[in-house]
Every structure is written in structure tokens, then in C-alpha cells.
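A quick aside before the break. I want you to see a complete sequence-to-structure record at least once, exactly as it would be stored in a machine-readable document. Don't worry about memorizing anything.
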Amino acid sequence: MSLRRDVRHGLRIGRAEFVRSLRGYASETRRIIGLLLLLLFFGGSLLFSLPAVYVVGRGAQSVTEIPFFDLVATAIPVGLALLATFRTLERIGRVENESLVLTTVHPRAVVIGLITAEICRIGLWFGLPLAVVAATFTAGLGAPSLLLTTAVVAAPLACCTTVWGYAVGVAVLRAFKRLPGVRRTLKVVGFVAMVGLVLVSQSFGRLLAEGSLPLEWLAATLTVGPLADYLALAFVGTPLARPFSAAAVVTFAAIVALTPVGLVVATRQASALWFTDRATGGDRGSSAAGAKATDSTGGFSTPKPLAGTNGGHVAWGLLVRGVRHPQKFTHLVMLVFFLGPLGTTIVQSSADGLGPLLAASGAGLGTYLAGATFGLNPIGDDRPQFPMLLLTPTAPRELVRGRVLAGVILGVPVAAALPLATVALGTSPLSAVGFALVGVFMCVAAAAFAVGIGAAYPIYEEREFWGATTVVPSTLVLMAFMFVVGPGTVIGLVATWFGVTGHLSATPLLAAGLGLYLLVTVGVSYGSYRYAVRRYRTYTFE
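That is the input. The structure line, written in C-alpha cells, reads:
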């Protein structure tokens, strides 16, 4: 096929993929609510920052007066390339219905379509907020042509970084396919690196306020001069225009020339990934696997403490599935963004307060794990097996109890062991035992509450994450869980601290408050558990 025909087909594929993404955003009420909450949170932050952007535009006399322009100009293309690479690993490394699509059009057309749709999505999620910021800065500067020149400069850069990000992402997927051990290692390394990045980024504001961050040295070290000169071309025709430099022209020519080269590389990488047959193992492998399955239970045999009830068998099955398919826990990464401020507080705490703070943190972490691991999407997680589950003698309450028990098995050791271990750091035994007992109680309450809220908003759609397909809970459900369980846990831990240190005296008011707290906690958790059981009993297939 000719390049012109592939481009035409690719643009049609890209339009169809982008329109399907828009329909997916608005396909369900809960997604619309989630988008509105996201818009409210980030849109509010953006609105509060616009006056400062306007003031910077009013007072700027040269590009050098824009704070850290060179550093930001370097970070933008690097960030776009990394975003495109991650998106390729997570979602667009393969095309849906590839058996039909790849026998209809050339792979180059498919690659063009996927990249075009991704550029449109990036423009929707990041381009619109940046356009608002640019328009505000332009209003302060008084140079309307800035919007046009910014678009002319940004468009080639976005295309080049997205194309090469896609090529790198597909190459990584090919490496994962050939070396599955490397994929598992990189998942661990990537998670640790992301945790470190979040912790560092959340400490950035504090270091900046203290003046201990060498910003000038970082800007001079990390800035790539040609990229900064190229992005400075956006100010041509404005009072902030820089003189033309050879580096800016060469960078522009390189970006334009590297885009089709990246498209060729991406097409070859994608073709090699899509048209390479997966190993099936052959008859010998199947016979060996059959013999192994006959000789061993594969580690699925339920241990004695759990084998006495049907709920225990269900819990052990969930734990085994979680170990074999850890991608099911990708939603737990959300906790990292809340651990950052806590980690900073722990580092800055005194020696006397370190032990109790770690004890309380352990109880809170165990509570989060007890509810968030297996309870936030019970129906969506079980739906592929529902025809079998609903026909077995196991009652729905046993299925729900199994999920609660599986979460408790993961959360209780953390909630109990970490507080007890802080005795070595100076925590009094009474405080450690108190935090451990409250943590165990909170784990049971959080696991019971999670199955109820998860059953109310099930998610059935699978998504690809780092080459593995899995079903994860709704972000809206996860946030609701954290906003309910988090404050409730904090109240219980603070009350425990005041109780074990002798700062609380037995009064009718205290007894009434404690009774109300326990009544609400137990009542909401038990009501959520009963609701999940009813949802299982009344579930119907559409």
C-alpha cells in the first residue's frame, strides 16, 4: 500500500479510537461523576493559579524573567516522551480486534491511527489546561500572536515525542515478551522508583520554602540549551522574543526529520510484536504440565486454619490468585500519594515521638490493606466465574465472607506486628498493644465496609497494565473508601493515644462519644456487608 493510503486509513482509525475514548468517558454515570470531581479538584487549582500567571505576563520583559523557563522547556519534551512510553506499555501497545484490523489495513496505518488518537487524547487532557494558562499569560503580556506561535512550536514537538515514545514502549513490550523475568523485575523497580519520585516531589515544596534546594544548580545542570532555544521560538513577534539562534533552527529541523524516522521504527517494532506467534508449549509441554498437575495441587490446597469453612476456602483461593496475578493490586498505588506527607512527618519527628507515630502508621496501613486489596470490586472481580459460583452449594454470604477474611489476613499482620515492633524504639508496651488491638478492629471494619461500597459500583471492563490484562476497582470507589476509612481510622488512633497516655478521664460525655463512634463504625460496616450479600443474591445477567 502507498503512504498516502496508509495515512488516510490511519487518520480514520485515529478518529474512531478518539471518538470511542470520548464515548467511554461518558458511557456511565459514575465515570461522569468521577470526571466532574477531577475537573473540580484540578480545575479549582488551575483557577487559583491564573492570577499569578497573569501577573507574570504583565511584568515579564524577557524570557529570562519567566521563572525557570529553561528548566521547564527541557522537562516538557522529556515528560511527553515518558508519558507516551508509559501509555504504550499500559494501554495502546496492541490494537483491539487485531485479527480483523491487521488483515484489513497495513500495520503502518494502524500505528498512525493509534498515535493520532493518543496525540488527540494528550491534547484533550493536557493541551486544554496549558491553552488556558497560555491565554492568561498572553492577556497579561498583550501579544495575541503568542497563542498561534505556541501552537506552531508545540505541535511538531508533541508529534515527535509521541511517535518515539510509542516506538520505545513497543520495544519494551517486545523485550517483556521474550524475557518475562525482566518484566517482573522492572515492575518492582518501576514501583519503587515511582514511590521514590512521589516522596521526593512531595518534599520539594518544603525544601523550596526552607531555601535548602539548590535550584540554580539544578537548572544549570538539567537544562538542555537547544530545547530551551527551540521552545523560545514561541515568543517570536512578542516583546519576549529571543534572537534567532542556530541551535533553535537545528533543533526544529531535527524534530521534523526525526518524526517520520520514528514512525518507521515504530511500525517495524509494532509489526514484530503483533505478528510474532506466542509459544504454545507443544504436546510435550502439555503432557508435562498434565503430569505435574496430576502429581501436585499447585499450592492451592487450603491450609488447616482456613479449611474448616467455605469462607476460608474462598479466602485462600483469593490469596493464591493475588500472588499469581499481582496486577490485580495496581490500584493500591494510590496510597503512595498519601504516604509522602506521612513519611516527611516521620523523618522530622523527634526520637520520643517516632515509636508511637510508626505504631499508629502501621495500624492505619494494615486497615487500608484489609479493605482495599480484595473488597473494592467483588462483583466485577467474580463476574467471569459467576455462572459457576452461583450454581455451587456455597451461599453468597460465604463468598462475601471469604473476601472479608482474605483482606483481614493481609491487613491484620501489618496492623498488629508493626505497632508491637515499635517497642524496640521506645514505645511503651501498653501503647503498642493498644494500637495493635485498635488496628485489628479497624481491619475487620474496613474489610466489611469495602465489600459493600465495592458491590455498589462494580467495574467489569478489563484494562491492560504493563502488558497484563486485569480488572481494577473504580477510582471513585477507591477515593470514597479512603475518605471514609481514613478519617475514621485517624479518630480511633488519636483516641487510643490519648487513652493509653492517661489524657482521658472516664466521664459520661466520653462514654457517649465512644459509644457513638463504635455504633457508627460497627453499624456502617455491618450494613455494608449485608448489602454486599444481598447484591450477590439478587445479581442477574443482562
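Two observations worth writing down. DSSP finds 20 helices and two strands in the chain. Residues 81 and 161 are 5 Å apart (CA to CA). We'll return to this after the break.
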